[in-house]
Design brief:
The complex is a heterodimer of chains A (about 375) and B (about 650). Chain A has helices at about 5-20, 25-45, 65-70, 85-95, 110-115, 130-155, 180-215, 215-220, 225-255, 265-290, 295-310, 330-345, 350-375, and strands spanning about 50-60, 75-80, 100-105, 120-125. Chain A is mainly alpha-helical and about 375 residues long. Chain A has 2 domains: about 5-45 and about 180-380, no CATH class; about 50-160, abc type-2 transporter like domain (abc type-2 transporter like fold, 3-Layer(aba) Sandwich), CATH 3.40.1710.10. A 4-stranded mixed sheet of chain A has the order 2-1-3-4, sandwiched between helices. Chain A is elongated, with a radius of gyration of 28 Å. In chain B, strands 6-7-8-3-9-10 form a 6-stranded mixed sheet, sandwiched between helices. In chain B, strand 12 and strand 13 (about 260-265) form a beta hairpin. The two termini of chain B are about 40 Å apart. The chains are: A mainly alpha (about 375), B alpha/beta (about 650).
């Protein structure tokens, strides 16, 4: 790999970047992915329960029932109002205009005053599992709070401190995301998903474009090894995506979502570079089995799904079925997410992540060698 | 005869581009009418409009008395139309077999199953596809795909067929086959046909034709009429020493061209007698000989266009020699730069290349001819070092291809029919890229860039993206990029497909100069027989084997010795004449528009007997010509005897 060798690689890299910059749609799409898409991901996709529309059927119409209903407060719930009967309630749930309906039975107050336990029912639309779970637990909290107050009232105690019975107060210390903002998690995840998508797709697209045009033939007849033909494409994708991820970090993730970047920037970019390298091997493989851009798209989508789902981005590996857990280690995104969140939110240094980094590099090298060998094969006939 | 199609004042523009400008023509029933012209002449636009699949700006089109002015009226005649769009087999389904393709088109056209069976049988027989009817379309050769395309177009027995460039990209043998099949079907089914082609030498196949260029009509009529309207002559000189003779000839006839070992002069403005005298005074009467050759439509076309254009963009000798440095001294000139010895390449059980041997010396242009799939590309792939041979050996520029493929890659230039340029980069960026890939930099790169720009006449478009350049310029740029590192060997894979005749002629001028002045060895493949005439040596491949290997002159001479000359009769009733000749036992009779042609070793005798036979059958003979066999005749003859 002498000087001439590198000069050839560099002139080809320059060519890739020039070609990329002339493809306005691709440039705009990349910019959008790294900014708009990350923004929407962080803002729009929220796992917080905010303003969930709720209705109630109050058959009791008593002081106690109103008191209970007052517990359903904003910002979690948006109480839309009273509903006359079960049938209407069912209707609103069916057409999704309400997420849940509280039903307070007759004699709610009377039973409580008589000292009898009573039931209220809460019908919940759990088709969105996450929101459903959250709504469920907030309603339980409200109920607990009502019970506590009722009990205090019955014991004629005005302030909880007057009560001489001890209670456990859990002092929680939430690390790394003290406010528990899902927007942090989502913005960073989205940025990494964009990296996954683009590192796979751009590499494959650049390569398949040469195949479609027939220019790859010219390159293969030039004094270049397959590695020398492929390396510039990967270098170009590295440059484009590292600039992209920098834009994403410094324009969206940090200023808009106020994510505190705890670690070292250089380390994050190094990890990102290794990740792009790992994914580009798969990209080369996609380009060798595809004949045109449309096929690249479809094969990319097929590969993206397991990479994302098995990465632990949305499900921690521990929650997966046992047989699935080892497979996680074959998803490059698993390592990227581990290291990325580590560096950004926990301030992890190289000493903490080096095993993951080495594993990712090794996995990337295997994929890259596989990609090159497939690429070489296609010239043989 | 009645009129089948009438086109009046037809114009069509796409946004700002005027594709067809005010064209009128009429096609008689039973006629094979041709549209001839280079890419971008407007042939496809006109054909699509006639087929009723394209709306147009102004003018009138009538097909069988039905005015086509709306989608509705076009629908009325579609059942009697057959339309085969451009692109080899593009309207067929690659994964379906021949029979399934035919059935599909029949169902689409609502052909009853009884008629289908009967027509399918007939068409498969005429096209010789019967044996392969279960083979998937994608596994067919180019010629077979083309025939299948025609079969599918004819399955519903249309009265009028429109075929858009059916013979483009197909070798001469398949082309001849295709014309025979078409002639037979048009006659038997009493059809009318409108056919376009980019090959000027196919003009004689049509009853009448229109020559188009840039959306306008250049001329219409029979091929003979068009040629006669521009009186000119064509002389070929066979010389023992063309290199010395050429400069002398050029000083009198600047349009003279070097064709391999021959010099070819076309004249339109000089009287024949005067030219004859000059030539006789220039040549060595004992060693050299000269003769007239019938002038072709292509020569007339180029001549006419040079008159139409104010300043034809021709590359002069001066531009070429500028900065061209001889790569080696004359003493080395006979060095063998490409050497193939018993090359064999097998893919699984299939032998793609079978014991191919040839060699090409410096300064030589070598033509590798053959049908698609004959093994040409595989030979090139082996010689350029991207495919190892199964057996045999090869040397390129002195390097053994078995051991030093990288060294070979450094010393060759390669240009393919796709003109592998980056369309989204500018001219300069392309030159720069290929220069650097081949290891140039600094001053050397600058010098060579200048040379490429000068050679290709590209100075004015240096910073234009290649995608917006016309084909001719792209082609010259691709050649320049292949030559940027001054390779000693140049591989050209169908370098002129899709380029108009003027562009092709300029391109070959450059090649001839290059070979002569720099001593580069050139290996070229082409489907244009006229281009093959430029080569010093030809190898003709068939099913992986070389079936002929000699100079064009010698190949034609051999054929003449074996088969005789070509007798060409222009007759009033070509179809009857053809069947008469075939019945009387003459083999190899071919139909060219209103001419029937046959080989004869006893020209005077045959001429007499055939003339008498025609007269006895009330066939008028307009004229009789005796022609020398062409390279196409050689090609067809060699391949046919190889198949047997």
């Amino acid at each position: 790999m002498n000087l001439l060798w590198w000069r050839r690689v560099l002139s080809l890299t320059k060519k890739e970047l020039l070609q990329y910059s002339r493809d306005i749609i691709l440039v705009i799409a990349t910019l959008y992915f790294f900014t708009g898409e990350v923004f929407i991901g962080g803002k729009g996709v929220s796992f917080d329960l905010i303003n969930a529309p709720i209705g109630y059927v109050d058959y009791d119409q008593s002081e106690a029932s109103r008191e209970w209903l007052n517990k359903l407060r904003q910002p979690y719930f948006d109480v839309k109002g009273s509903i006359d009967n079960d049938k209407d309630a069912q209707h609103y749930l069916d057409n999704s205009s309400l997420l849940g309906v509280m039903e307070i039975p007759h004699n709610f107050q009377n039973d409580l005053l008589k000292g009898q336990s009573t039931d209220i029912s809460f019908q919940l639309d759990a088709s969105n599992v996450i929101l459903g779970n959250l709504a469920n637990s907030y309603v339980s909290l409200s109920n607990a709070s009502f019970n506590q107050e009722w009990m205090l009232k019955k014991l004629k105690i005005n302030d909880i401190d007057e009560m001489e019975s001890p209670s456990v107060d859990a002092k929680k210390m939430i690390l790394f995301n003290p406010e528990g903002k899902s927007s942090w998690f989502m913005a960073i995840s989205e940025m990494m998903t964009v990296m996954t998508l683009l590192s796979l797709f751009l590499t494959a697209a650049i390569l398949v474009k040469e195949k479609e045009r027939g220019t790859i033939e010219q390159l293969s007849i030039a004094p270049l090894t397959p590695f020398q033909i492929l390396l510039p494409k990967i270098l170009a994708v590295e440059i484009i995506l590292l600039i992209g991820v920098a834009l994403s970090l410094f324009l969206i993730v940090i200023p808009v979502f106020e994510v505190p970047f705890q670690g070292e920037f250089w380390l994050f970019f190094l990890v990102s570079a290794v990740y792009i390298y790992a994914m580009s091997g798969l990209g080369i493989f996609i380009a060798t089995v595809s004949k045109n851009l449309a096929q690249v798209m479809i094969v990319s989508i097929i590969l993206i799904m397991p990479i994302v789902l098995l990465s632990g981005a949305f499900t921690p590996p521990e929650a997966m079925p046992e047989w699935e857990q080892p497979i996680v280690h074959f998803s490059p995104l698993y390592y990227y997410i581990n290291m990325g969140f580590g560096i950004i939110l926990k301030g992890a240094g190289l000493n903490l992540i080096w095993t993951d980094l080495l594993s990712l590099f090794a996995l990337g090298t295997v994929l890259f060698i596989f990609g090159i060998s497939q690429f070489r094969k296609q010239f043989e006939n | 005869m009645s009129i089948a199609v009438e086109i009046k004042d037809f114009s069509k523009s796409y946004k700002k581009i005027q594709a067809v400008d005010d064209i009128s023509l009429s096609i008689q029933t039973g006629e094979i009418y041709g549209l001839i012209g280079p890419d971008g002449a407007g042939k496809s636009t006109l054909m699509q409009a006639v087929a009723g699949v394209l709306r147009f700006n102004s003018g009138q089109i009538r097909v069988f008395d039905q005015l086509i002015d709306s989608d509705k009226s076009a629908e009325k005649i579609k059942h009697s139309l057959g339309f085969m769009p451009q692109g080899l087999g593009l309207n067929l389904y690659p994964d379906l077999s021949i029979e399934e393709n035919i059935d599909f088109f029949a169902n689409l056209r609502g052909v009853s199953s009884e008629t289908l069976q009967q027509r399918k049988k007939m068409l498969l027989e005429v096209s010789n596809l019967n044996k392969f009817k279960d083979r998937a379309m994608k596994n067919l050769s180019g010629g077979m795909k083309q025939k299948l395309g025609l079969v599918c177009t004819l399955i519903h027995q249309p009265r009028f067929v429109i075929l858009d460039e059916p013979t483009t990209g197909v070798d001469p043998v398949s082309r001849r086959d295709f014309w025979e099949m078409l002639n037979q079907l048009v006659r038997e089914e009493n059809m009318t046909a409108l056919i376009s082609t980019a090959y000027m030498d196919e003009a004689t196949r049509f009853n009448r034709l229109t020559v188009m260029h840039k959306g306008k009509v250049l001329d219409s009529g029979t091929a003979d009429e068009i040629i006669e309207r521009t009186p000119g002559w064509l002389i070929e000189i066979e010389s023992k020493n063309p290199k010395e003779l050429l400069p002398k000839i050029l000083s009198h006839f600047p349009q003279a061209e070097e064709f391999g070992q021959m010099i070819r002069i076309t004249g339109f403005d000089i009287a024949v007698e005067k030219a004859q005298k000059i030539i006789e005074s220039l040549i060595d009467g004992k060693k050299d000989r000269w003769y007239f050759v019938p002038i072709g439509l292509e020569d007339v076309f180029i001549h006419r266009l040079n008159h139409v254009l104010d300043q034809p963009e021709t590359v002069t000798q001066m531009d070429l020699n500028q900065g061209l440095t001889p790569l080696m001294s004359t003493s080395e000139l006979s060095e063998e730069l490409i050497k193939a010895e018993q090359l064999v390449r097998r893919f699984d059980k299939f032998t793609a290349v079978d014991k191919v041997s040839f060699n090409v010396s410096s300064g030589e242009i070598f033509g590798l001819l053959g049908a698609n799939g004959a093994g040409k590309s595989t030979v090139i792939k082996m010689l350029t070092g991207i495919l190892p041979p199964s057996e045999g050996s090869g040397f390129v520029a002195g390097h053994d291809m078995a051991t030093s493929s990288m060294a070979i890659k450094e010393s060759i230039g390669y240009m393919s029919q796709a003109f592998s340029l980056y369309l989204d980069l500018t001219v300069n960026e392309n030159i720069d890229l290929f220069g650097r890939i081949y290891g140039l930099s600094g001053r050397r790169l600058k010098e060579r860039s200048h040379w490429v720009l000068a050679m290709g006449h590209l100075e004015n478009v240096q910073n234009t993206t290649v995608g917006s350049l016309p084909m001719g310029k792209r082609q010259r740029l691709a050649l320049g990029c292949a030559l940027v590192h001054e390779p000693r060997v140049l591989f050209l894979d169908e370098p002129t497909s899709g380029v108009d005749p003027i562009g092709r002629r300029e391109f070959w001028q450059i090649l001839v100069e290059l070979a002569k002045n720099t001593g580069v060895a050139i290996l070229v493949t082409t489907h244009y027989m006229q281009e093959a005439e430029h080569c010093h040596k030809l190898a003709l491949m068939q099913a992986g084997k070389v079936v002929a290997y000699d100079s064009p002159k010698q190949l034609k001479r051999d054929l003449k010795e074996r088969r005789g000359s070509v007798l060409s009769f222009k007759v009033s009733n070509p179809y009857t004449s053809l069947s008469l000749l075939q019945k009387s036992g003459y083999s190899k009779v071919a139909l060219f528009g209103s001419r029937v042609q046959l080989f004869s070793q006893t020209v005077t005798n045959t001429r007499k007997t055939v003339s008498e036979m025609f007269v006895n059958n009330n066939i008028e003979i307009e004229n009789i010509m005796v022609l020398e066999p062409t390279l196409e005749d050689v090609f067809v003859d060699k391949i046919e005897s190889a198949i047997k």
